[in-house]
Write a structure and sequence with these properties.
With 103 residues, the protein is an all-alpha fold. It has three helices and no strands. The chain has one domain. 91% of the residues lie in helices and 0% in strands.
Amino acid sequence: MATDSAVNKEKLVQDFKLVVSDAEELLRATASQAGEKVSVVRERVQESLHRAKIKLAEAEEVLIDSGRQAARATDEYVHDHPWKAVGIAAGIGLVIGLLIGRR
């Protein structure tokens, strides 16, 4: 369940990056448009993009940190309980083998 959450967060970050890049491209495409209203809107969008990039960087850092913590906890568990880890891995392998064998 935790890995599903991490995968969803990573997908969200990737999607958000795509939206930011599309918005930047839109700003570049409308750079030649003149007018006071267009300039005001462009400035607001640029500020919003700047804030979004900062939040995106923070979200990525949180994901990286949580991944490192999970890896560290797993490593410590395996070192503390090596035979349990081998048994769990063998059990998971057996279940996967049975599921594949049914097809």
